Amino acid sequence: MKKTLLTIIAATMLFSACDSLKPGGGKITEGKISYKIDLSQTEMNFIQKQLMEAAKLTIAFKDAYVKTDFDLGMVATTVIADGDSKTGLMLFSMMGNKTAAKMTAEDFSKKQKEKGNYTIDYADETKEIAGYRCKKATVKLENGATLSMFYTEDIQPAKINTEFTYEGIKGFPLEMQINMNGMVVNLVAGSVDGTPLPENYFSMEIPEGYTETDLAPFMGGSENMKNSENESTSAQE
After folding, report:
1. CA distance 99 to 90
2. Is the whole-model pTM more than 0.90?
3. Which of 6, 12, 61, 168 could covalently link to 157 via disulfide, CB atoms 3.0 to 4.6 Å apart?
């Protein structure tokens, strides 16, 4: 369960920094956002919820770079992407087993095509999140799925486009409700830090101790991720 949800979240954030947002008069164009995970609408046992709600999710951005960290303690994923070269790096760690996969421009292009067309519905509803006034929008994908969010125009990264940031929405989401294979997950920003980040924070070098592997298990959606998890379980047995 932990690895399945972690890989789904990692995959949805995998292809960041593909399209440009117009950097208007936003107050923050560089920094780090930490999110809390709310699973109150998802059917999980007590232990599973305790594990997931203790998870740490952070999205950092600087110039054309974006870095996503999702940490469950014994399981963690880091994704770094460069919006200019459209290349990236994924780092995956599970109980001491550390692997790394490089992303090419072709990988980015494939993921963008899978995203398909979408429409955006805006609502009059607003709320304050982490000290920022946010507006509500709902993204409807051509496959019938929807993504609800509250976004702020005061945070404007130079280049970033994850599964949760769409070019038509000129701002950054601080609350997102995602339905992943029947699991409803709410991500709500707990803090926003606009402190400048060093260039090496977004290094594409594979760290020492990581073994390079293929990106394919993260490219084919939930079925490939499920197969990858089964193979990992079999290997451990």
Report:
1. 8
2. no
3. 61
